[in-house]
Amino acid sequence: MVKAPRPIPPAVRDAQARASDPKASTFVSANAGSGKTHVLVQRVIRLLLSGVPPEKILCITFTKAAAANMAERVFTTLGHWVTLDDTGLDAAIREAGIAHPSASLRREARKLFACALETPGGLKVQTIHALCTRLLQQFPFEANVPARFAVLDDRDQNEMMERANLAVFLEASRIPDSAIGRALRTAMANAADVTFKEVVREACLSRDHFMAWTDAAGNATAAAAQMSAALGVSTEDRIEDVEREIVDGPNLPRSSWKEMATLLDTSSKADQKQAERLRAALTFTGAAQVDEYLGVFLTDDRAPRASVITNNFIKKNAVAGNRFEAEIDRLGPLIERRRAVVARDRTEALIHIATAAAAHYRREKLERGLLDYDDLIDKTLAMLDRVSSGWVHYKLDRGVDHVLIDEAQDTSPRQWDIVAHIISEFTSGAGARDGLVRTVFAVGDEKQSIFSFQGAAPREFDLRRRELKRRFEEAGLKFDPVSFTYSFRSGPVILHSVDHVFREQEIFRSIHAVENGYPIHNAMTDAGPSLIELWDLAVADDRQDIEGWRAPFDGVAMTSPEVKLARRIQAEIKRLVTSGTMTGSAGGRRPLRYGDMLILVRRRGNAFDAVIQALKHAGIPVAGADRLKLTEHIAIIDLMNLADALLLPQDDLALAVALKSPLFGLDDDDLFKLAYQRRGSLRAALAAQAATDERFAAALRRLEHCERRFTQETPFAFYAWLLGGDGGRARMLRRLGHEANDALDEFLELALSYERKAPASLQGFIAWLRAADTEVKRDMEISRDEVRVMTVHGAKGLEASVVFLVDTTTSPSDTQRLRLIHLPQGNAAPNAPGVVVWAGKKAEDPPAVADARKAMLGDTEDEYRRLLYVAMTRAADRLIVGGCMPGNMNTVRKSSWYDLITKGLANAGLRLEELETPAGKVMRYSRPDDAGDLTGAPATAAAASIALPSWLRTAAAPEAAAAGVLRPSDPADDDGHKIRSGESVLLRARALQRGTLVHRLLQSLPEIALERRLGAALGYLARNADGWSEDERAALARQVVALTVDLRFAPVFASGSRAEVSIVGRLERPGQPKALVSGQIDRLVVTPNEVLIVDFKTNHTPPKTAAEAPRGYIRQLALYRAVLAKLYPQRIIHAALLWTETPEMMEISASALDAGLA
User: Fold this and answer.
1) Which residues lie across from 1080 on neighbouring strands?
2) What is the DSSP letter of 967?
3) What is the DSSP string of 449-498?
4) Nearest to 872 by CA among 477, 354, 498
5) Is 485 exposed, middle or buried (0-12, 13-18, 19+ CB in 10 A)?
6) Per-residue pLDDT tens digits for 383-414
7) pTM of the entire structure?
8) What is the mean pLDDT of residues 240-269?
9) What residues have CB less than 8 Å from 349, skipping those under 6 apart?
């Protein structure tokens, strides 16, 4: 089916035309889904149409995939133009932004495809690293790099870093009294060996911070001196001297601790506890003794104690009390000094070891003629910065006239500096070279800057935009900042919700410059209906998880909240697809498919695994993980175990794993038959059993083939035969699914790569493979009808009709533990390298480090919010927000994704439906006019025109009057009950809110275990009682929980009672027309002999007797009773009002109820 072209608003077309104008430099700020790639391609085509040679255009993209996609779209468009007639080509040129095509323009347009293909050098669409590689290869002498350098891949870089670390550690152990030897001892005292290796690696690869600082300092000693000064301590300060000063001061020297402890024992329990701490300190030595002694003055969190000794002790022992108070004052500065010296010593050790490891790493790169990705940027920038590089600038200036930058928000400061060099002559003024107009085009969205770990700095986006605007305008050149606010992807509810989630300045300052104000998104006029669902959080079951012996030992427990959420997601996906729910814009509505579903997580963990597992168990096609660790994939584990069994035939376990794999096809029962009561190896048992069992004979033949081949062939040739000629790949895919293809392809690629670097042996290859931490990034673009499960980082640039957000309650610190703290740089340039400190425990931070840590955590929080923006804007029609209650909490963390979305939706002004489903509560937000099309029906072909029968045109007879509808909760006409004195409109609104909260709690709390009710109530009120103080929420929670356990009301909340029971029935009354009764009973209790109807009343003072109850309340209960009497004709029906403010249940007599119906 050919989709009709979407109607594009004039404002959008105008913005696209301005952005693609080849005569103006443009900086485009493009919201998610606003068509930035389309405009990027459109600008390239308009540049070509205006006569710019392809080789004069440079397009810089963020990834190789983006570069390939952009080039493909340009060439596809130009190739299509060749096939069009004049009318069609005119329309296409107008679509590209040129209002009045001419015959000459059509001729040029038809030449562009061949021109772009055949021009030497061609159209340059490449990543910044590819650009730098090309420049360094073009100017190796000027850049001081090997003429035929090679670029290190991540795997080789990891291996070289391991070798560098090992060399430094061996040197330190060989000469323990050297600077490196002493540094290693200090470092190992502060961290485990694995953690320290990670810190050293992080420091060596922190090229823009740690290594830039130490390189600028000149040597390790100079860097250590700078760091000491930044921490406010002298390089001469020794930790032993500071600690001795702490424990042997004038007020409470060590010699007096025992005596002081005896004195404290005569006082209160609090003072006796302090005596125990003093005695404990005496049992230690060195730093441990200092820590124990400081425990007298500091809490476990290392904060000052509110009270060190009691006032009673001071009154009785004035001299000793004064000594304690003087010691408190004396220790404050010493504690801070000790923390600073410890941080200095720890960081100095890291400086010596990291700089030595970096030197080894650099030396090996130089010897082998290698550059890593950071080198590409550093060497290029250094070359362009040198005054002597005029020749390079001249060649660049003659080669590029138009620069286009994609994903500008992910461009690092140093990469921007390279671009600035390339375009430095663009602003020399009009006519600077041959009268050419030379332009810069940058497009991005700082709200989507989520790659800070790759060096991206979101603030650079706005800074560079302002700088470019200033430079071009000062040169008298046209510079046009353009904003794209219309989304071609998301529906109006999604966009409206995004705007409100990021409405407050405290929130939107995290995603873009404060001057821009809160974000504004506009939906296309033909966008289909959209909605957001907020699910209640999954909580762990109280029951113990019991599994069979076949259950995997490392699987997620079936009672965990992650598994419950995963099952709920798979059920919802199946429902959406099988019910024919529609998707798409107005011109192309169609039923949802599994490929329209995208499940997003912040990180791969239990929820990630549980979702994939639940989808597979339900038979729902799923694409698998977006990234996988190669050696942890089951197919690769099978291949490696086969190698182990071939290399060491006595390894029964490896052979058992291989035999059970799809390569051989045996199962547990077969293995038991082989292994039970065997006298020799498993290999021998297989040979013995093969004579009588064809399954074992087939497995033995294949194993013998493998044994012959692996000794004669290279690892690649052996595995290529095993997976290809022997049919191993087909057998694996039948059991594991097609996603195993990616792992098998990467495995063979690595086997081939290994053979290029080392002697080809199976043993060497397997050892090399296990030593690496190879990750495979899988292409998750829609190619098959499968659900995609991936991280938000991986989903950048993708979209889906339905998006599920899974781990919405975690905090940024869950995934990023700060090890290296960057201290403020004072008056240095914005991107100048500053001092870096190896952080210890947060509670032990010196003041300078504590402030810097806080700033870095603030940056992490900002990126956490930008990640939420990216996640929400992947959705076209439906955004479903779920999550798991954190295990040690009864409410979600403030400012978590779940909290931000909940608060944003509460103030969004959307229509809210609260739905109770078997899986849990759903809060659905939508627009009222979308309500009829949210589930939709399958699309049907338009019916052929047929003649209508004449009776359809005849007016229908008047319809009999419909029965009236009685709603028990409607107030009676004469219901004149008094409202509390002094109640204002605001107080009335507060009372209504209170009533809603109480009803909801009384509905849910009786179903929760008694010991968890208060926590559940507090959690619910924290999320829903807006404007209430913590004390008010706590008081209401205690009041409602007390109601549910009050013995007077035990039958109301007993097991089997039902909450919020909807009731509909037809009521016949003498002398009156039939009427429909529709309402909802707050609590219904049905026993074999009786029925009890209870209605909760929260916002009125209860009357003294039942006779004084408001008539409307009596009528409400009477209507419920009349309908239920038909359902339970043999049972006595009671009705009661339960007043919640002064807990009292008031039963209404049968005579009063009968009168209420009159």
Assistant:
1) 1062
2) -
3) ---GGGT--HHHHHHHHHHHHHHHHHTT--EEEEEE-EESSS-HHHHHHH
4) 498
5) middle
6) 998 867 777 777 776 778 899 999 888 888 88
7) 0.74
8) 91
9) 182, 183, 184, 186, 187, 190
